[in-house]
Amino acid sequence: MDILIRKTYDEMSKTAAGIIARMVRSKPDCVLGLATGKTPVGTYKELVRLHQEEGLDFSQVKTFNLDEYLGLGMDLNKPYVLDQSYARFMYEELFKHINIKKENIHIPDGCTKEPEKICQAYEAAIKEVGGIDLQLLGIGGDGHWAFNEPGSSLGSRTRVQALAKQTLDDNYESFYAKAGFERKDMPHFAITMGIGTILEARNILMIANGIKKAEVVAQAIEGPINSQITASAIQLHSGGVTVVLDQEAASKLKNLEHYIHVEKLKKEYGLS
Ligand code: GLP
């Protein structure tokens, strides 16, 4: 696991976007797993800049988002429909600014009447393209990945999940309140990739910022692997794992000095 600590949110975002850009350049038809939330906004902003100013080409890239609220969704052909869906978030923050093809974008359809079918089809679609090359992830306030709330099996697959109280509180504050929603009107269920699904991505890139995330970041990276902090499954991944943190989110790591030392050493020896 490479743990990279950056001074600020902006630097964290630039480092994360740089890792994604490297994947896109080395494999122009790569499959990216994408995440939502406040954390990746800066990463997407930097990817948009790299596209607009440095010609980073998304024309062959395929994407699979981690999750979607049940009951919400967006028809990408009618992008003016405003809601709090993750589809809309992705469209606003990234897709409308880059040259990705609509048919290459995959987000679970939250408006479905047949969620089971959608979940199975999502798993099949990921397999059909040969799996995810690089999965971007944030971490929820309760230590979750995507919407794999505490108690989700570490082998879980794409399915419907009930959202934990803390997640509802956090996401209400971050998005729904600002959009004028009442707390009771936000969706309480979501379709989410499972932890088992996520672990099959060939590379994992987790990002986190701010002091509020420091405790769960430490638990995920250094604590016991367990289904209460589903992001702790990061310790089970067999491929490339990179964690990019700002100083605040890294502040409770016991081995902080060691991670900083290793990154320096790798740079010195040209290994990063
Ligand atoms: C939601 C998303 C997660 C995300 C988390 C953290 O629960 N489903 O994928 O990691 O929020 O969001 P934020 O980045 O806003 O803290």
Q: What ligand molecules are bound, each kind once?
A: 2-amino-2-deoxy-6-O-phosphono-alpha-D-glucopyranose
Q: Radius of gyration, Cα only, in angstroms?
A: 18 Å
By CATH reckoning, the class of the domain at 7-141 and 153-201 would read Alpha Beta
Helix content: 25-40%
What class would the helix/strand composition place it in? alpha/beta
Just name the CATH architecture of the domain at 7-141 and 153-201.
3-Layer(aba) Sandwich
What fold name goes in the CATH topology slot of the domain at 7-141 and 153-201?
A: Rossmann fold
How would you portray this structure in words?
By secondary structure, the protein is an alpha/beta fold. Strand 2, helix 2 (41-54) and strand 3 (62-65) form a beta-alpha-beta unit. The strands form two sheets. The protein has a seven-stranded parallel beta sheet with strand order 1-10-9-6-2-3-5. Strands 4-8-7 form a three-stranded antiparallel beta sheet. The model has no long low-confidence stretch (mean pLDDT 94). The protein starts with a strand and ends with a helix. The protein has a domain at 7-141 and 153-201: Rossmann fold (3-Layer(aba) Sandwich), CATH 3.40.50.1360. Helix 1 crosses helix 2 (41-54). It has nine helices and ten strands.
Features:
single chain, 272 residues, alpha/beta, Rossmann fold, seven-stranded parallel beta sheet, three-stranded antiparallel beta sheet, 9 helices, 16% strand, globular, binds 2-amino-2-deoxy-6-O-phosphono-alpha-D-glucopyranose
